[in-house]
Amino acid sequence: MKYIFVTGGVISSLGKGLTAASLGTLLEARGLRVVFQKFDPYLNVDPGTMNPFQHGEVYVLNDGAETDLDLGHYERFTNCVLTRHNNLTSGQVYETVILRERRGDYLGKTVQVIPHVTDVIKNRIRELSDESKYDVVITEIGGTTGDIEGLPFLEAIRQFILEVGPQNVINMHVTLVPYIKAAHELKTKPTQQSVAKLREIGLQPQVLICRTERPLDRDVRRKLSMFCSVSEKAVIEERDVEHTIYEVPLTLHAEGLDQLVCDLLHLETPGPDMADWRKFVERVVCPSKRVKIAVVGKYMDVRDAYKSIYESLTHAAASEDCGIDLKLIDAESLEHGVDAQLKDVAGVLIPGGFGPRGVEGKINAARYAREHNVPFLGLCLGMQVGTIEFARNVCGIKNVNSTEFDKDTPEPVISLLEEQRGVRNKGASMRLGTWPTNIVKGTLAEKIYGDTEVTERHRHRYEFNMKYRDRMNAKGFVISGTSPDGILAELIELRDHPYFIGCQYHPEFQSKPNKPHPLFKGFIQACLRQQTAHATHVRADQESPHRVLERELVPQG
Ligand code: GLN
User: Fold this and answer.
1) How many Cα atoms occupy the beta-carbon half-sphere of 334 within 13 Å?
2) Is the dihedral of CA 545, 551, 554, 557 positive or negative?
3) Which residues contact 135 (CB under 8 A, 6 or more apart)?
4) Pocket-testing residue among 380, 415, 431, 458, ligand 1, by greatest number of atoms within 8 A of Cβ
5) What single string gives the DSSP state of each residue in 354-408?
């Protein structure tokens, strides 16, 4: 078993997760079986309750774990399927230790960071060490070297290296090499200092990934190598990518990262086959047409808040050789009229969300999409919003709402299951993780999926209220997918609309490059049809630039 620990230096937001994921892509393309693990040094027990403004989206795994969005990068960039065992926060570590102490497991000994906390961390790495399943474990340590919170993790790694032997482990340090305009120079000092910090704790990186705006010249490489005790060929340049994050594996490969890692870990494999990946990147970078899509949500200024959705749109669009112009609309701005903002888009997507803010604006957007035959994709809350809109404006039921937004609504078309059964005030907890959906034959959903049984990831509390099913169905509202017992609505669509789909789950967590999710793919196809048929103002870009050749996607020379 081989281990790669990814640490970060100088500042946060260097794209450590993306770098780790990209290395995973390359190792998989060399035929290795890769698994990831993320250690988050904050004290929250899980990221599920963290504010998207601060933290970006909550990424949900098959087993229902609510995790950091870096796990989304790992799953999108590789074939690995992660569970709660692949994410560990300091909060979880301390919770484990304190529970053990309360149970008396430590037999009255003094409970300490070393060995008790570090043992919990090391055990979590060992739990993944299943040689029948994986060849390489890539563990990313969140935060920046020098943070107090991160120390127990780094100490655990130091001990772990001692236990498994240096030939089986590398530390890859992702660092910043800033360009100082006044001096016309790239500066190596921050990296030197952050490596010195690592050494203080007893860790010596074998690979430096240098995030930089400018190419690293020979002198800079030599200097970094000499001061940081890293071989010169292990000073890897990771320049800001020009177009898309999916270029990162290609640029790292061009820098020789995957060969270097294999050499350091004594892994003998053939070179990576990146042909499909390159083709995908080429389509993202240089599509032959474009389509304009509105995303109507709450956190429009925080790009990471809907990360998986934007990625899923990219995957689907690339499969149609199409680029996307995203129009990000704050739902609250649609509360008093939508036409001005939606008239130039070929599709409307409403993401998930919690709480009443912006809901009326989303309902207006769903109405616009329904009335103008504009393709609509409603994810989780987006589906609930589409449902409320239909019940109000097509079925003419007054005061329809979800009990999430009006707990005393006389017409709870969306509510908690307990409420539907007449039980009030039962603390309903979240329905999380993968659940099966049976798709009704003959529906648009069946056509899109090409299947009648699918499994998708969930994260919600409220449900469609089946009491309204017949009344709404009579007007053209179709429940096209349900839980196998038929109790929960999972998918809805409108009979008289080219593409109005809502799902109670989150398909965005299962889309990958070259494997777009059917609901997103269907949505983009419908948007393209809409664009040519109706919205002539959303013209496809006639002057699409020349197509990029494969070799132009990686820096030459
Ligand atoms: N707030 C809604 C619910 O709890 C939708 C959740 C979501 O969009 N993830 O059911």
Assistant:
1) 29
2) negative
3) 1, 2, 27, 32, 33, 34, 267
4) 380
5) -SSTTHHHHHHHHHHHHHTT--EEEETHHHHHHHHHHHHHTS--TTEEETTT-TT
Residue of 380, 395, 503, 527 marked catalytic: 380
Q: Which DSSP state fits 515?
A: B
Is the model's pLDDT at 51 over the cut of 80? no
Of 95, 69, 169, nearest to 125 by C-alpha is 169
Amino acid at site 450: G
| Contact present, 524 and 291 (Cβ < 8 Å) | yes
User: CB-hemisphere CA count at 13 Å for 328?
Assistant: 12
Q: Is residue 134 in contact with ligand 1, taking CB distance under 6 Å?
A: no
Is residue 228 within 6 Å of ligand 1 at its C-beta?
no
Give DSSP secondary structure letters for 98-141.
Answer: HHHHHHTTTTTPPP-IIIIIHHHHHHHHHHT--TTT-SEEEEEE
User: For the chain, how many helices (H) and strands (E)?
Assistant: 19, 23
Q: Which tokens hold the place of 183?
A: 């001096």
Give the position of tokens 């010195």: 196
| Local structure of 173: helix, strand or coil | strand
The 10s digit of each residue's pLDDT in 261-306 is 999 999 999 999 999 999 999 999 999 999 999 999 987 777 788 8
Classify 35 as helix, strand or coil: strand
Of 66, 407, 460, which is best to mutate to test ligand 1, by the most ligand atoms within 8 angstroms of its C-beta? 460
Rounded to two decimals, the pTM is 0.89
Q: Given the CA of residue 353, which atom of ligand 1 is nearest to it?
A: 8
Distance in angstroms (rounded) separating the CA atoms of residues 413 and 134? 47
- 147, 41 Cβ separation under 8 angstroms: yes
What Cα–Cα distance (Å) separates residue 91 from each residue in 40, 128, 498? 9, 20, 47
**Do 502 and 348 touch, CB atoms closer than 8 A?**
no
Residue 550: the pLDDT is 33
User: Cβ–Cβ contacts within 10 Å for residue 454, how many?
Assistant: 21
- Distance (Å, whole) CA 445 – CA 519: 8
SS3 state of residue 123:
helix
Residue listed under structure tokens 């990686």 = 554
Closest residue by Cα to residue 29 from 281, 250, 272, 258: 272
Cα–Cα distance between 205 and 171 in angstroms, integer?
5
